Coenzyme PQQ synthesis protein F (Pseudomonas soli), 771 residues
Amino acid sequence: MSDAIRHLTLANGLHLTLRHAPRLKRAAAALRVHAGSHDAPARWPGLAHFLEHLFFLGTARFPLHDGLMRYVQGLGGQVNASTRERTTDFFFEVPPMALAGGLERLCQMLAEPDFAIERQRREREVIHAEFIAWSRNPEAQRQFTLLQSVSARHPLSAFHAGNRYSLPLESPAFQQGLRLFHQHHYQGTQLTLSLVGPQSLDELAQLGRRYGKLFAQGPGAVRNPPPALLEAPLRQPTAWGARQDWLFAHERMPEGAEQALELLLAQLTDSRPGGWLDALRKRGWLQDCKAQQLHAHAGQLLWHVQLQLSDEACLAEARALLHGWLGFLRQQDPGQLNLRFTQLQQRREQAGSALELAQRDSAGRSFSGLSGQGLAAFDALLADLPSMAAGDWQLPPEEALLADALPTIGSALPAALAIGHCLPPARQFTALDLRWQVPSPLRQRLWTVLEHSLRPLRERATQAALHLGFEACGEYWQLHLAGHPLAVINATQEALALLRAPARQHWQAPTAAEAPLIPIRALLKALPNTLLMGAMQPLPACTPDQPQLDSLWQQARWQGLAQGFDAAQQGALGTVLQSLMGQPAEPSEPHPFHERHWRQIQTSGSEPALLLFCPLPAHLQPTGRLLAHLLQGPVYQRLRVELQLGYAVFSAFRQIEGYGGLLFGVQSPHASHAQILGHLLELLSRGVALDAAARAQLAKQFDEAAMSNADVAQWAWQAHMATHNPDLSRMRRSILNVEQVQLDELLQQLIDARHGWLCLANAVAPDAKWR
């Protein structure tokens, strides 16, 4: 059943987009303000970003503890905001019954913000902490350098992040400018509100009208045309090692150019046989490729292709191949290209979450093929790009991951593959997890080969709204596929063939360098492997080859879990898994933790960052989940708002590689690791009071109908690895039985590290008590 969509305009000028999607289990709102950093006065860089932050600090109607962020997080939902050049977006996703409460808070905080000077001072320090992290992050600086390639007169080349010095709070002129910016842009004619959910269009319209009218009516802001992107030929940025950035700029593009660019980028990033990425890969040059839009406004487009090439690559020939591919695309029937693109878009729409759909709708970019206007813009876009008649090109074959018929059916599933029952087949969302234990240290060398072999399939899967991941954690290799049932089955067949016998070119392929992460994200990435890693084994001094891989597969012991497949789909999956590598095995409970463990992780940034993971045995996890739920607000209030340790502060209950426990994270520009840890322990020592309403709220989240399909699948897989009962209703009942005495006892056990601590940090341990 396709979604039903309706567009309305309220009396105050607010544009309302409504989408009724019966398949969804959640509802979402996305509000786009048609003003961003380039619309703020140039004398106060960062004003628009600063205002975005101020909104979340609460109002008289909804103070911080009852504001949008706490409300949504308490329901297990998602909430965030983003300030771009010409737009500012606010969005959240919650259970359908909570949409009204979230929408009221969102609209009220934007329509009637509190500009109290004290809260401005506190939040400016958070903005400054973000600025420091941004200025120290090589990838962020690289992105900023890209934008310096346009005209110096264009606002893209200016600084807009904001910091302590660009936001003069004590200046009456600044305060007036802040209020005028809000008055001019946060009013009806400047807003697009998108509501998405399983509710009827009439229900959604009623909510949109009720809360959309909170905004004042205004004449609409007058925008002067932006200066030209270019005053001279575009300056191509300098290469960063093996990474090349090729920029493309366009002026005076027709309506629909932004959607046309989306079609072009889909063609450029298609690595199937016949295209330019395939040509690079066959030459052994391609390590990685990304293409994305950097800016779009008033007929201007700026986008770039980021290539990572091997040392042997000929840059001039690689560029000529791109121009040849663009020349080939010029000669193709745009209607045929659009037909294939439409199929991809339809699959993305089917797989999209409520939040993804709401964000696309609020931006006026729903998942669909190009209209006639968009096709004309596509022709104009191609005509404005360099091209040449060179190369032996062909359009890629039909995408097997979009097939709508089952492959051969008839084989039973392997005995070591468990069938999960948390996710009903009616959801049309399936997940397959396969995990091999590979004790040999050769796995570290061979994983690189296998990951490289899977890369083209993973790129195709991403385009087809299918998640495909292949990770190495401790002694394990893990393959995860999730999405449409037929896509998962077909991708599994291809993935196993690629893992069993990688093609020759993948054996000597160099590993692509990854973009550096900010310290806290680097720690999060390292956490799963650190949890499972035993004693480090020396790497054998040998060149990996197929016989070594064959031997490892024969020795490997595997287990797996399939979820969401109906009987016919299970038969097709059974056929695909007949030649699964390795020996079947039963899952075993993870080793328990004891005492305190500190692991130093090298990060590219210098700011102190710390993760504290407190694993819990199964019988304490319901209490631990409630404790984490009750601590989330106080941790944010104390560490970010009161102590202003930094902008990266969080706490939650997490399941990681079969371990469940409380996770705390902080990155700070000024507090040491010992100070961060001290603040966390001081906060825990204050205790927490049981809130019956919060307990009931948390318990409601453990219901298949209230969880996203991906979350249900992840829940069941984590329970499988931990050998726990995956019954959601059991967890729900256990949470409802938690009382104050249990919370107090567990808090003390956490403080004493009774069940062990694992601390990851980008520094050595602060004292000798850490082993």
User: Anything to note?
Assistant: The CA atoms of residues 608 and 668 lie 6 Å apart.
